[in-house]
User: What shape does this take?
Amino acid sequence: MATLKTLCVLLLAATSTVALPSLRKPTRLSPVVREGSKLLVDGKEWRAVGPNVYWLGLDENVTPPAGQPYDPNTKASYPTKERITEVMAVVNALGGTMIRAHTLGVSTGNPLSIWPTRGVVNEKAFDTIDWAVYQAGLYGVRLLVPLVDNYDYYHGGKYNFLRWAGFNLNQSKDSNNPAIQQFYTNSTIVSTFKDYIKTLLTHKNQYNNLTYAGDPTIFAYETGNELLGPIWGDMNCPADWVADIAKFVKGIAPQKLVFDGTYGINKTHLGIKEVDVFSDHFYPISTSKLQAGISAVEGAGKVYFAGEYDWVGTSGGDSLDAFFQIIEKSPAVGGDTFWSLFGRNAPNCNTFVNHSDGFTLQYGNPSNTAYTNSRIQLIRKHFIAMSQGKTISAQEPLPPVSCPAPPPSRFFTRA
Ligand SMILES: *[C@@H]1O[C@H](CO)[C@@H](O)[C@H](O)[C@H]1NC(C)=O
Ligand SMILES: *[C@@H]1O[C@H](CO)[C@@H](O)[C@H](O)[C@H]1NC(C)=O
Ligand SMILES: *[C@@H]1O[C@H](CO)[C@@H](O)[C@H](O)[C@H]1NC(C)=O
Ligand SMILES: *[C@@H]1O[C@H](CO)[C@@H](O)[C@H](O)[C@H]1NC(C)=O
Ligand SMILES: *[C@@H]1O[C@H](CO)[C@@H](O)[C@H](O)[C@H]1NC(C)=O
Assistant: This one.
């Protein structure tokens, strides 16, 4: 009896030793560095895989309770902390390592954004951004953050900067107007955009006292999302502007990597010294476009990234599995991020948030079809192959993520 009791105590001791890491202080994430066509963390290859989650700083899909900040014109509101934290737990469950997150950087021209108008800082907008960056760090999830958007969406983008400078342009009437190139070429606008970048990068996070420039959780900034010129697909985002913005970001934040935010692989940009990663988006999936892009970027000794793709696959295109296999086998591919993740309407654990573009991925939604879950399983298999070098079955059940989200204990000892 006594022996059994001792054994139990020993077992308990062993169990609590295993649980101990959750009591330790989290270690700050190591910076991601680029060496030629590879991304490295602590000298070992690191691959960037995860979801796009565009709404972490500011959302447009949930009407908040009366009295909470809300912009009825754009349906913009701040996401709850519970929704933000759940995303980090879902990325862990998927075997992901990072998130591409538009509204942690693109936040202009909306009353709820960082710069509602030129040069005016709305401190309240940083609450959700700070929380997302802080939670990502605790869960070991790194962040890729675009700095401006090509479009005129609720969270802002290049048209805000154009209008602030007196150019009365907007996406619905002017996307083909050559004057939109003033965003890249007009020195007044470029200097305002740099002021905005400075506001963002020098902001100190209330939850960890780190500036965004100094927090390695944000491993990279992207010069923008899907930047184009006046013709759809023209990749006409001037190389001089890309180099200038990349240099400016690295001047404030020397440890960040910079992604070229041009929509597509513009070969005239491949020599830009300050740019680390070049990327493309896939609607629908095209393995030939993927392969051509990888070859070009690899030839330049830089990293390739598939920044967005249609994971649903019901509107044509090549096989998602074939796309993933090329990515896994190509040493110059830094990773990929599917479009796009939503979660429960937490703290309400019973409903999921939906977005109207047809690409919403809701992890663990009991009403997902078998087809949807098989696609999520394929994504998880791919992420685990990329992040852990492990092959799992495409039928492996998806691990549940509780609501409220589980604490980040398994990452507390990770570098
Ligand atoms: C740049 O924008 C300003 C308005 O902010 C305008 O006065 C100026 O003429 C523009 N420069 C060029 C070269 O078009
Ligand atoms: C864009 O221009 C159109 C046509 O002038 C106008 O109806 C619309 O309200 C404008 N949108 C913005 C965001 O200014
Ligand atoms: C941030 O710094 C301030 C001033 O030094 C200090 O009072 C506060 O406790 C710090 N907060 C965190 C989360 O470290
Ligand atoms: C690529 O970028 C250059 C300027 O940097 C631009 O002149 C050109 O139109 C872009 N597009 C293509 C397809 O090269
Ligand atoms: C989510 O939105 C899409 C696109 O609008 C729609 O087809 C789908 O039925 C919606 N799903 C749910 C569960 O509301």
Q: What stands out?
A: Residues 22 and 409 are 4 Å apart (CA to CA). Confidence is low (pLDDT under 50) at residues 1-24, 411-415. The pocket of 2-acetamido-2-deoxy-beta-D-glucopyranose (ligand 3) is lined by residues 207-209 (CB under 6 Å).
